[in-house]
Structure formats: C-alpha cells, structure tokens
Amino acid sequence: MMNREDHLRRADWSAEQVELPPHALRWLRSETGLNDVHTPTRQVTASVSELPEKARDVLADIVGSANVLTADGDRLGRAGGLSYLDLLAHKGSGAVAAPDAVVLPADPDEVTAVLAACAEWGIGVVPFGGGTSVVGGVAALRGDKQAVIALDLVRLDQLVSVDRVSRLAVLQAGVRAPAAEQLLAAHGFTLGHMPQSFERATIGGFAATRSAGQASSGYGRFEDMVEAVRVATPRGEWRLGVAPASAAGPDLRQLVVGSEGTLGVITEVTVRIRPLPTVRRYEGFVLDGWERGVEAVRELAQHRVLADVTRLSDMDETTVGLALTGGWKVKALRAYLKARGVSEPCLLILGWESDVQRRRAATLNTLRGAVRVGRPLGEAWRHGRFAGPRQRDALMNIGVCVETLETATHWSKLGLLRSAVRAALTGALSAPGRKPVVMCHISHSYETGASLYFTVMVPRDERDPVGQWKRAKQAACEAIEKLGTITHHHAVGVDHSPYLATEIGELGVEVLAAVKQVLDPTGVLNPGKLTPR
Ligand SMILES: Cc1cc2nc3c(=O)[nH]c(=O)nc-3n(C[C@H](O)[C@H](O)[C@H](O)COP(=O)(O)OP(=O)(O)OC[C@H]3O[C@@H](n4cnc5c(N)ncnc54)[C@H](O)[C@@H]3O)c2cc1C
C-alpha cells in the first residue's frame, strides 16, 4: 500500500526499490544491446512562485493558510504526471514546470470558492488527483495566465454514502482506488476498477480521463460506472445524473466524464457498485500466433462470453514475460508448448469474478484452439498485476527507455494498426547498438473491436534521452491517427492534443471550445490540455 509521501513522488513510482534478477539483465543485454550506462540524476529545482501575494491571501481565506503551499518540495511534488518523460525530467533530463502554489481544499464548497477566486484573479487551475497522468494532463502550464496552482484533491477523501438497494455509492473525488475498495468492502461491495495505476490514482481522475481498468470486460470502463457527478465550475456548481437512464436530451454527464479538468473540477462521483466477489478464478491459456489469438478473443466478445479479465499478449510480450521470469517452470512450460506444436505462443489470461462456474463454462465453450496452461499462471498474473510501474523504475535505473502507449480500433483493422505502430516504433528507435523490443497486448475488448497496448524497451540514448522518446511517440501517433483512436484510456492531455481534431473533427473541437466558454469563460481550468487551442 502506498502512503501519503508516495503521493509526492515524481521521479519514480514507489520508494520500494525493485532490482531485476541477473537472468533478466543478461536477457536485456543480449536482446537490446543494453550496456551499463546510466543517465546521471541531478537535483531538480522549482522556479520562483509567481502567485501574487494578494491572491495567496484570498485563497488562504478559503482553505486556510496551512493549505496553500508554496515550498519548493510541495510544488515539485505536483509538477507533472508519471510518464517516462515526466520521470526523466524529475531525474534531471528535461524541463520540470512546477505550479506556483498547491491548494488543498477540504470539501466541494471550498473547491467552488477557489475556482471563483482564480477566475477573478486570472490564475490557472490544474486539478490534481493521483497525478498519474501519462499524457501531460497535470502539467503545470500557465497558458496566458500569470500563475497556475495545482488544486490537489487529496483532502476530499470520504465515502459520502452507500445506497445498498440501488447499488450506488457516492465517493469524493480525491479518494484513491485502494481506499475506495476498502471503504466499499466494509459494506460488502466493490467498484472493480483496477487500472495498473490503481495504487495512486483517484476516483476524480478516473472520471476525468475515462479510465479503463484491467477487468473492464466484466465491470465496464469507468464511464460505465458513473451514475452521477458533482462538478465545481468557475460559474458555480453543476450536478448531473438523477436516474439510471434518461431521454432528457444528450447525456451531459458524458461531457464532464473525460473533460480532463478543462470544464470543471469533479468533486463527487456517484458510482455503480457490485457485490464483493466471493470466488475468483484466473487461468492461463496459450494460442498459437497473434491472428489466432485475436480471432479467439473476437469470438468471445461477439458471443458475449468474455471473462471479466481477458488479456491477450502477442508473441513478443509472451516471450519477454517468460524470459524475465526465468526458472525451471518456464523451461518446462516451453517444452510443453513445443510438444503441443505451439510455435508462436501468445498468452491469454482469463479471470472471472462473478457467477464463476457458469460464466467460465460459457467462455470455455466458445474459446477455440487454446492450450490450457493452468491456474498458477493466471494467479501469478493477478498477484503481479500492479508490479509494472515498479519494474519500470528498475528498468529506468539501469538505462532503459521504457514507455507504453495505447489505442483501439475495429476488429477488421486491428492487425493493420498493430503492424503500423510496431513498424513506426521500431523504425524510430532502432540505432546502431540499440535494438528496441516492442510488445503488444489486448486488454479491453468490445463486440466491434479492441484496444492495443504497446510497451517499448530500448537502451536509452544518453545524448538525447528526451528526443529519443519524443520522436518515437510522434511516429506512433502518426501511424495511429490514420487507423484508430489516439487514446483508448490514457486520455488526451498535452501529448495527444495535436491529434484530437483528426479524430473529432474541427467542428468537434469548436463544440468543446464553446462549452468551455460557457463553463469557464476566463479560461482558467487546466490551460493547454485536451483541445489544441
Ligand atoms: C504506471 C501507470 C499505469 C497506468 N495504467 C492505466 C490503466 O491501466 N488504465 C487507465 O485508464 N489509465 C492508466 N494510467 C493512466 C492514469 O492512471 C489514468 O489516467 C488515471 O485515470 C488518472 O487518475 P489520477 O487520479 O492519477 O488523475 P491525475 O493524473 O491527477 O489527472 C488526470 C487528468 O484528470 C484531471 N483531473 C484529475 N482529477 C480531477 C477532478 N477531480 N476533476 C476534474 N479533473 C480532474 C487532471 O487535471 C488531469 O487532466 C496509468 C498511468 C501510469 C503512470
């Protein structure tokens, strides 16, 4: 479990240092050309706070002076998110933009009052949940404002109410996912939202970014869990959502969900909750080749028998996973798969959390061509499912450029999209002595298509670590732009904003700008995010 101090970690995910086992290091060296060069870390400093003294006093009157922080450590602790480039910047490579102050409101009314004050003073406001954005969503950009504050919602940490009959719970925006699960478990419920950022991300952040958890096939994406929202805007409070379904015009809740702090600050979310699972079952299967794997998952999706967790790794991701695990069990598994005639193993993890017996039978009746490799693999995945960010810390510490990106498209274009992104990333990152490893998996499937999630590892270019990843990311975005969505769940932030107009059209960008003009007429909310202007 992460603690309060971890909330401020910006150069890594966790204080807990994980080291790669020797066999994993050997594998990385031989496959990628990694040698023992490390990017030196240097002390990062915050620029001088530009928050006018009088504005500081006004904010202190609202939240109390102890809750307006201007010390360098507090500001650096909310300077940007947790993408590879953010982590690099906090290690000393790249620029860190710190907010001019951190403001910690205690409740929704204080949030509304802070926004009104910031609108009056022309001060930018970056809503800050867990700060796990990987797309620049919490970058402290000033835009045309003289100063910008990080509005950290950490004190909005209450479970407000539970309606057992309707299976609804009202959670404040700053509740972190593990706390939400604990609070709900005390009432016998779960939210079931388990993104890989689970340990640090918040309810408000999930809603603001249309997050997708690893069990999205069973519990839905976060927007499917949102029944109602309470939103603070510079124009006052806005509440949306009075019934499970409504024909009262377009669903304005969905305008707020995914608005990334540009239209208002979500202070409370009424979420749909489910009974806590009493039985869980996770299992591993192997398909021979990516195309067969995709076909199998598509059939599960179209027959509506997906497991709650349905995650298909391509051969590269499967190979890397086995290589990094090592040991005799992996050797035995490889031998077993060879004996079963599998030449291109693609690991499929299936996990059921409700009505397990019946639903598992339905899934397995439809699953074709899969070799069963047992519960230990499935359970190992479940127990290690939040380990990724710690492994990223370990990899970065030994000089690896390691980052992820994601997209989604229709089944008929999925193969093309995967090939295009792989080619773009491989082309941009290959260099003498540096061979990239590009892995991919499907973890969110729908009747009409699926998401693709890419992980890249390559020895860091010590002379230009920032440019190395920026060029690769741009190449991948350009490949994606023609074939799928620019983001399936990481959101737009700053990084994807140049590609938004291609996806929603110039008219779509204008619609968003018009809505913003109504809700945030002075443009103080999250400057520079979501829309390209
Ligand atoms: C290692 C790692 C793994 C990840 N895995 C996943 C994953 O599996 N699935 C997934 O969906 N995402 C994932 N992400 C991305 C990220 O965790 C999500 O975007 C998450 O929803 C952000 O929540 P947060 O509380 O950290 O929000 P923040 O990072 O604090 O904010 C994200 C955006 O929402 C805005 N915002 C935050 N709170 C509010 C609020 N109350 N009201 C209005 N706006 C607000 C911010 O201004 C910002 O634009 C991952 C990130 C990391 C670093």
TrEMBL record:
Keywords assigned: FAD, Flavoprotein, Oxidoreductase
Swiss-Prot/TrEMBL site (Important for enzyme activity) positions: 311
InterPro entries per record: Alkyl-DHAP_Synthase (IPR025650), FAD-bd_oxidored_4_C (IPR004113), FAD-bd_PCMH (IPR016166), FAD-bd_PCMH-like_sf (IPR036318), FAD-bd_PCMH_sub1 (IPR016167), FAD-bd_PCMH_sub2 (IPR016169), FAD-linked_Oxase-like_C (IPR016164), Oxid_FAD_bind_N (IPR006094)
Keyword Oxidoreductase assigned: yes
Pfam family, one: FAD_binding_4
Active site residues according to the UniProt entry: 453 (proton donor/acceptor)
Domain FAD-binding PCMH-type: 95-276
One of the GO BP terms on file: lipid biosynthetic process
Any GO MF annotation of the entry: oxidoreductase activity
Keyword Cell membrane among UniProt keywords: no
Cofactor requirement: FAD
Binding site for substrate: 392
Record-listed FAD binding positions: 127-133, 260-266
Family of this protein: Belongs to the FAD-binding oxidoreductase/transferase type 4 family.
PANTHER family assigned: ALKYLDIHYDROXYACETONEPHOSPHATE SYNTHASE, PEROXISOMAL (PTHR46568)
Protein name: Alkyldihydroxyacetonephosphate synthase
Organism in which the protein naturally occurs: Actinocrispum wychmicini
